[in-house]
Amino acid sequence: MFGIKKLLGFGMMRLPTADDKPDHAKICEMVDYFQSEGFNYYDTAHLYHGGLSEVAIRECVAKRYPRDEFVLCDKLSVNYFETREDIRPLFEKQLELCGVDYFDVYLMHSQTRGIYDKFRRCNAYEEALKLKAEGKFKHFGISFHDTPELLEEILTAYPEIEVVQIQFNYLDYEDTAVQSKRCYEICRKFNKAVFIMEPVRGGSLAKFPEKAQSLLTEGSPASYAIRFAAGFEGVAAVLSGMGTMDMVKDNTSYMKDFKPLTEEEIKRLFIIRDVMKNANTIPCTQCRYCVEGCPMNISIPDLFACYNTKQIIDDWNPGYYYKNVHTAGKGKASDCIKCGACEAMCPQHLKITELLETVANTFEVNK
Ligand code: SF4
Ligand code: SF4
Q1: Residues lower than pLDDT 50 in the chain
Q2: Distance (Å, rounded) from C-alpha 38 to C-alpha 209?
Q3: Judgement on whether residues 38 and 105 belong to the same structural domain of the protein
Q4: Which residues line ligand 2 (CB under 6 A)?
């Protein structure tokens, strides 16, 4: 699909660096290996490495391979424009930095409620679609980090969207904060191509918990995570942010002739997931009985889910979702006025007000 030859894509956001800049010599070696194994899809954004990921694309890919031998995705990121008029010059600069005269795929980057609202105010989708009509990129899409409801709203408003990039991995699959599975189902309902980001959750799933290590031993933990994501119908690319040649070699070895996980392997992977999830410290069952009556509009179970996720894997995800999704336009944990309405509703008899203090201390202090 879209000229992408194999399901694995090279995410250019965690590149090897030297003196805090992408190390072009190492990246060239990684790109050469990737291409020689039959892979051809690259994903960048102006945001990655402060614009230097795009430069790495130019120096390590575009200058060294004919344009029809690689497929390139770039993105419109919210921090680089304030009005519709800012978008075209930014886009032209992105083409120049990447050393290409068109992108294969262009995504509206990291759509959340707040970011989408700004894109709407600036008519960013309309401006991007104008650029597409002029032949400056071939396929239009979004990368997405919010609720299934917002995804449905966007896909309804913009039927021109061809591809949706979602966070999807076996840990987030049924996670009530990220809701990977439901977002995937919305993509399928609207018949969109699905690109997967964070299949290894920024490297966090590159290790199994010690007591579950013996359950899957034929490949690396990352290989099971990537093959899990790649096995779903409609998935057109799975991105891996590769930072070393070892990662490129490992990933390409099992994705060259991709075979989905067997039912038994998926079963074992979910056992491993449950071992990870058992590190939860707040036994909230996500019934949501407490939500409606909160005068401060605090999305209590979602904040607890972020907290629990952080107890299992302390990466950037829980903080991101806490700040940009579950408290955007809603109450934060520290906004609780201790009225007690929620505790009266909680079938688990949780001391919600105390727990929210813990959550606030986790996500709001010096963060
Ligand atoms: S105690 Fe806090 S969280 Fe609970 S309903 Fe009142 S304001 Fe909302
Ligand atoms: S009522 Fe209690 S168990 Fe249910 S979602 Fe709220 S905090 Fe969680």
Answers
A1: none
A2: 33
A3: yes
A4: 284-290, 300-301, 345-346, 348, 350, 352
Mark which of 262, 292, 314 sits at the end of a domain. Answer: 262
Atom 3 in ligand 2: residue holding the nearest Cα: 284
> How many whole angstroms separate alpha carbon 6 and alpha carbon 139?
18
| Helical spans, DSSP H, in the chain | 24-36, 52-57, 87-98, 113-121, 124-133, 148-157, 180-189, 221-230, 245-255, 263-277, 300-312, 316-321, 341-345, 352-363
Q: Is 270 contained in some domain?
A: no
Q: 131 and 76 in one domain?
A: yes
The verdict on residue 223 lying in a domain is yes
Residue 8, pLDDT score: 97
For the domain that residue 180 is a member of, what is the CATH number?
3.20.20.100
Give the residue whose CA is nearest to atom 6 of ligand 1.
Answer: 339
Distance (Å) from CA 337 to ligand 1 centroid: 6
Residue at 288 is within a domain: no
pLDDT in tens, 202-250: 666 887 877 788 898 889 999 999 999 999 999 999 999 899 999 999 9
Q: Are residues 151 and 84 in the same domain?
A: yes
The 10s digit of each residue's pLDDT in 140-173 is 999 998 889 999 999 999 999 999 999 889 988 8
Residues 38, 102, single domain; the answer is yes
Q: Residue 162 Cα, ligand 1 centroid: separation in angstroms?
A: 41
pLDDT on residue 366: 65
What is the β-pairing status of strands 17-18 and 21-22?
antiparallel
Q: Does the model's pTM come out above 0.90? A: no
- Between the CA of 23 and the centroid of ligand 1 the distance, in Å, is 50
Range of the domain at 185: 8-262
